[in-house]
Backbone:
């Protein structure tokens, strides 16, 4: 997906805003009210804001997304360790939200490719289709059939049952 628009392919139409020509000798009152307004109201507020910004610039706080440390999985928690259960459940919910967003982003890329390519979408968007199929299958394998009220314990049991079925199929 291109990072920037191709300005040669999608040219911006010229502006159609007419140029105003003064045809009267009476002065425009806004030419007098605007500077007065700026001096009376805007200048003190701007001065005060710049003063506050200057004081706050010493204590810069850069906010990015919140980073959580990885906690042990539910299978690694000791029996009766309810705090570990709670942290593992919160970690699982965050992972589920991230995985859901990954699927949504890939789906949006696929839709954009289909929109862009039109009738040639099957040959030009094959890579996106394959990626969407892989991501959707991985999400379905991990979180499918859990429902809205799924939690880390039911997800772990689902993975355990799937592993047992794979072992039986391998024998």
Residues:
């Amino acid at each position: 997906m291109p990072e920037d628009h191709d300005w040669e392919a999608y040219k911006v139409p010229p502006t159609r805003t007419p140029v105003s020509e003064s045809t009267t000798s009476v002065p425009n009152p806004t030419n007098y009210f605007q500077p007065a307004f700026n001096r009376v109201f805007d200048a003190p507020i701007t001065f005060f804001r710049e003063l506050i910004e200057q004081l706050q610039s010493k204590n810069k706080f850069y906010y990015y997304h919140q980073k959580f440390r990885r906690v042990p999985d539910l299978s690694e928690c000791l029996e009766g360790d309810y705090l570990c259960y709670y942290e593992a459940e919160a970690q699982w919910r965050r992972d589920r939200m991230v995985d859901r967003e990954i699927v949504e982003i890939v789906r949006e890329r696929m839709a954009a490719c289909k929109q862009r390519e039109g009738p040639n979408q099957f040959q030009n968007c094959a890579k996106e289709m394959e990626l969407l199929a892989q991501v959707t299958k991985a999400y379905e394998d991990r979180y499918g059939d859990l429902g809205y009220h799924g939690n880390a314990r039911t997800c772990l049991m689902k993975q355990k049952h799937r592993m047992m079925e794979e072992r039986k199929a391998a024998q």
The mean pLDDT is 86. The chain has two domains: 30-63, 82-170. The chain has five helices and no strands. Helices lie at 30-56, 82-117, 121-124, 126-143, 152-170.
